[in-house]
Design brief:
The protein is of the alpha/beta class. The chain is built from seven helices and 14 strands. Bound molecules: zinc ion (ZN) (2 copies). The site of one zinc ion has 7 residues, from helix 2 and strand 13.
Length: 222
């Protein structure tokens, strides 16, 4: 075991700090204003060597503090190529929404984000990722797995072939389940989930929800 994972609960979503002897790596940043929470978690580790900020996708509740954290820590921001244009415009693409209450609420509330200070600052990503890209150059044994559907560039970071940071492909809000509220392309979601399952991770770290999903639980989804 060479990495330690620290879960950070921000107001809307989960962010994760991955720690190894070479550096610290942040997966997602929470909504705008989450930087004090994340910096506190980093300080608690006694580390200042944040080497990369990996964004699972360009939604305000995951990329919202990326620009500020980049300014403060100097760590480069990496995101899949297909979501980089949204990040650059500070947009949250939600595509079509499901007809449940959360889906409809999101659609109603999204235009209000700027008014409540929750619109992400636009940010040019430093690193544009593609499926199969590796992060060894940053000191982390990890590979980018493109798992689109929720957004065009939604990606899972697979660390040491056993820890999967899946963003909003999955949620563990009540029980482990696929994210069913928003998708720019619903037809891509089953294949993205199957792809994650075939990787057989030991643990899946979801973008929302209070617990980490075990590999055997992952196989029971859908
Ligand atoms: Zn999302
Ligand atoms: Zn989310």
């Amino acid at each position: 075991l060479t990495v330690t994972v620290h879960t950070i609960r921000t107001l809307w979503s989960n962010a994760y700090l991955i720690e190894n002897p070479h550096g610290v790596y942040l997966v997602d940043t929470g909504a705008p204003g989450s930087e004090p929470t994340i910096l506190r978690a980093l300080r608690a580790l006694g580390r200042s060597d944040l080497r990369l900020i990996f964004l699972t996708h360009a939604h305000f509740d995951h990329d919202g503090s990326a620009a500020t954290l980049r300014r403060i820590t100097g760590a480069p921001v990496a995101i899949h190529r297909a979501d980089a244009p949204y990040l650059a415009r500070g947009e949250t693409p939600i595509g079509s929404v499901s007809h449940n209450l959360t889906g409809r609420l999101g659609h109603m509330l999204l235009p209000l984000l700027p008014a409540v200070g929750q619109a992400p600052e636009s940010l040019q990503a430093d690193v544009l990722l593609e499926d199969g890209d590796r992060l060894d150059a940053y000191g982390l044994d990890a590979v980018v797995v493109h798992t689109p559907g929720h957004t065009p560039g939604s990606s899972t970071l697979l660390v040491e072939r056993r820890l999967a940071f899946a963003g909003d492909l999955l949620s563990s809000r009540s029980r482990p389940q696929p994210q069913r509220f928003y998708a720019t392309d619903w037809s891509q979601l089953p294949e993205s989930l199957r792809r994650l399952q075939t990787l057989h991770p030991e643990w899946v770290y979801p973008g929302h929800g209070s617990h980490t999903i075990r590999g055997d639980e992952l196989l029971t989804i859908w």
